[in-house]
Amino acid sequence: MKQMKLFSMLLVCFVLLISACSGGNNVQTNESVTKTEAVTPTEEVKTEPEPQPEEVVDLGGRVIKMSAWWDLTPAGTTASDKARLAKIAELEKKYNMKIEFVNVPFGEYMDKFTTTVLAGEPFADIVLLEYKSALPAALKGQLLELSEFTKPESNINNEMNLVVKSASLAGKEYAFDNPTTLAVGVHYNRDIFKKLGLPDLQELYSKGEWNWEKFIEVAKLATKDTDNNGKIDTYGFSGWAAQVGRILVAANGAKVADDSTSKEGLSDPRTIEAMEFLNHIYNVENVAKIKTGDKVNWEETDTFKDGDVAMFIASEWQMPDLTFDVGIVPIPNGPQGTAEVTYANTAAASRFIPKGVKDPEIVYQIFEEMQDVPQLEEYPGQDYLESLYGHEEDIQMIRDHIYGTGIIVLDEAYPEYPFNSFVEDVIKNNASVTATAEKYKQQAQASIDKLGK
């Protein structure tokens, strides 16, 4: 009997054990079904689209030409140059073409451009042009607008870290170039400032005290006979009066000639105010060194290189091989100016694609891809600026307060535009600024109108 009870108990335990195992299997099966139902054959599975292979155009051995009035070929002496040469070789293979850098002397450049474009066979696919030459070409329909050869996805229309849009011409976009950092400002001879105990211009700027009045004050302090021999041996300022005038007009919120509105700027009250200040520098305070004996001689541009001038308006490219320590601050704004514009760029140049170039979209695409090389600089133009300036504070001043504050002024693009005559009458012949502006304003407007026809 006891054995029967024991057997019955064992049998019940065995049944319960079988049930428990069977229930566990059901749970696992249900979980498996649940997971399987999350991706059933009847539902569409979302997947990432397959990347499309890049469409590469075979140019059949075509030569893509890029021109300037100097040799643009990377020298191959720096890491950046070597990377560019490697990129060029890569692109030549990729597109089955050759890239040629065309060097045409400056004096022959525009004649070659004009004759070849008019013949329908531009001498280069991408040309470097000064803005003063590009404006007439644009107005005559000899240049393509950016929209005619760039795409919405082009770097120039997005990040602009490879290629940037240059300033517009007559209200339209034509030009492009590499990112860089340029500087036009009041440079000053640190050696003279130290010798004469003059106030540091960067400190004046940081205090908000750098203006036209302070400029004259410092220039007067620097114009003196330091050895008491009866002759001035240090000067407050030097420069080509016409170029200085254009820059002062911009720093006072105006343009000598406005290509965007096709209006003369000589009669603008802001221009007249700037010209009064120019006259103050040259004829009232007499703080400018005139090396050639002619106040309006363009060669006065380089007078500062003698080392006896305290302040001078110049571009960064004029700094190599100086015999003195140099610093820089923005050109001081006039009463009507703003910090957003501190100078007029009268020598601006950029890259353009002439009308008549075959497959301009591909030509531009190749140029843009050429720029896609490892960036070894912390910012565009770092090596360039560091080769010109010996003080980090000067480079920081350029990057923070000067770069990007220039406007392109194109009065020299218009035939017989009378700004230089305006300057000569005022600075050399002591004529009234207001009367001289009235004298030349009609000629100035006629010059603008003539080019636009």
Automatic annotation (TrEMBL):
Coiled-coil intervals: none
Keyword vocabulary terms for this entry: Signal
Annotated signal peptide: 1-24
One family name in Pfam for this protein: SBP_bac_1
SUPFAM superfamilies: Periplasmic binding protein-like II (SSF53850)
Region annotated Disordered, chain positions: 28-52
Superkingdom, taxonomy of origin: Bacteria
Protein name, UniProt field: ABC transporter substrate-binding protein
Organism: Paenibacillus crassostreae
InterPro entries: Bact_solute-bd_prot1, SBP
PROSITE patterns tied to this protein: PROKAR_LIPOPROTEIN
Phylogenetic lineage: Bacteria, Bacillati, Bacillota, Bacilli, Bacillales
Listed Low complexity bias regions: 33-42
